[in-house]
Every structure is written in C-alpha cells, then in structure tokens.
Design brief:
0% strand, 8 helices
Amino acid sequence: MKTKTFTYIFAIISILEIIAGTIGFREGVFFTKPLIMLSIILFYYLKAQKPLEKQDVLMLMAFTFSWLGDVFLMFSGETFFMLGLGSFLMTHLFYIYVFSRTKKDANISARIFIPILSISLFALIYPHVNKELLIPVLVYMLAICVMAICASERKTTTESFRFVFVGAMLFVLSDSFLAIEKFAYKIPASTFLVMGTYVMAQYFIAIGFLKQSLKA
C-alpha cells in the first residue's frame, strides 16, 4: 500500500470518527474508532521490511496496545478508564524502549520544557483527581513525559526524527486535553481537540519510524 493511499484512507476514518464523536453518534464511534489503530497496524506491517526487525515488532506491539486503549476508552466507568490507561502506558513503554535504542546526546531543552509542561498539567488537574486514580495518573504522566524526551533524543535521519518528535508532542498535547476535560474543566470542541491531535500523533509516529526502519 502506498503511503499516499493510506493517508487518504486514514484521514477519512479519522474525520468520520471525530464527526461521530462530536455529534454524539455512539454507533459511529464504535465502528470507526477501532479502525484508527487497526489501519495503522495493517499499513505498518505491509510497509515494514520482511522478515520484521525487532524494532518493527515492538512498534506493532505499541500500536496494538493503543488499539486496546481506544477500545477500552469507548466505554464509561472507572474500570474501563483504568484498562485504557494501562494499555496506553504499555504503548509508551514500548515507544520509550524503541526510541531509546537510537539515543544521541541529551536534549537539554526537551528535558527542561517537557517536565515543566507535565508538572503544570498535573498541578492543574491534581485537586480534581480521585485519590484512587492519583498514582496511576501520575505514573502515566511520567511515562509519556519520558517518551517525549526519548523521541527528542533519537539519532536517526532528519525526516524520521521530525516526524516522530512531532508525533510524540502531539500525543502529549492530546493527553493533556483529555486530562483537563476528564478531571478539571470542560473544553469546547474537546472531541476535535483530543482526537484530532491523537490521530495525527499516531500517524506521524508510524510514518516517521517507517522512514527510519526502511533505511536500516
């Protein structure tokens, strides 16, 4: 499958999901949301070199846990939220491991800015988070913070670096919108903001890492 073809398909799926979520068409969300990561998994598998390298298997595992997270978060309730949080935590742990395999010198700017952003977000939502969720949320925020820093320190091609780093920061932004919406304040057009940044994050990470993988 050509990247251009996948981009069109992925954009259509994503737009339909965002529209369904915005207008409250639950059946539409249940149909389209699982397709977001399934399409990335299929595309990545088809494009990656065969036999699959270890890094590609790990990326597919990360995408699979993201798919699970998407599915769990379609349902309401604390149990499904925790399952979704745990799934995305696994996604970030896989990303951290894979990104750190090509680590270059420390990115001091990222190591300062990203934690400041995370601490500011935690300070904003802290008064509104249930005590039972406090530690899981804190652990998750730490993981995504480390993931973004690792993305900023990859030693790879310029194009691959830019794609993955932009994707990582969009992931941070998406989860920030989600955390504020869930725990603190209602955000206008929250579905558009959360899912719009999320789908772009996963797209940029997948495309960016393929640009590294296919040059290996």
